[in-house]
Write a structure and sequence with these properties.
Length: 171
């Protein structure tokens, strides 16, 4: 596996983001035949070459949504009350009524090795990221549109799907 270059990914993503998003919009408006099968096959191929610890861009640039259960579990793990944990680490996003990290990168990310210091009790949003197999692909296109900008695995998945379904190759 070759070393991951986050700067190179960001340049590539900025160039190709409009193309990938247009592809996803086409998929969303008219589901191609065999979408589920293609997505699951391509997802398996993507993970053969991906190492999340080489990147951790999600932890560096995004915030998970913390459910009530997440907050209870994590606050107990770190030896804090729920309220103290929320006060120290989270804010309430009033638009969605979601608890989110106050800071980026995530306070639990070790920047030396990109490992999560609360991995065993991490938020369910983190455990499921990048959500490639969480739901049927068509139900989750809006998430792929967002994550393609942050997650090299999602970028690669959408790129592979686009090539396989439309024959279009990115630069």
């Amino acid at each position: 596996m070759e070393p991951f270059n986050l700067k190179s990914f960001k340049r590539k993503m900025m160039t190709n983001r409009p193309i990938l998003r247009r592809f996803l919009s086409r998929v969303e408006s008219k589901e191609p035949k065999g979408l589920d099968k293609v997505m699951h096959q391509e997802n398996a191929e993507v993970w053969k070459d991906m190492d999340c610890l080489a990147c951790a861009n999600c932890c560096k640039t995004m915030s998970p949504t913390f459910t009530t259960e997440d907050v209870k579990r994590i606050s107990k793990h770190v030896g804090m009350s729920v309220q103290a944990f929320r006060d120290k680490y989270l804010y309430l996003d009033k638009a969605d009524n979601d608890w989110m990290n106050k800071q980026q990168p995530c306070q639990f990310l070790n920047l030396d090795d990109n490992k999560c210091s609360i991995y065993e009790v991490r938020p369910s949003d983190c455990a499921g990221f990048p959500h490639h197999t969480k739901k049927k692909p068509l139900d989750y296109i809006h998430v792929y549109k967002q994550n393609v900008e942050y997650c090299p695995a999602t970028y690669k998945l959408v790129e592979r799907m686009m090539y396989r379904m439309e024959g279009e190759k990115l630069k």
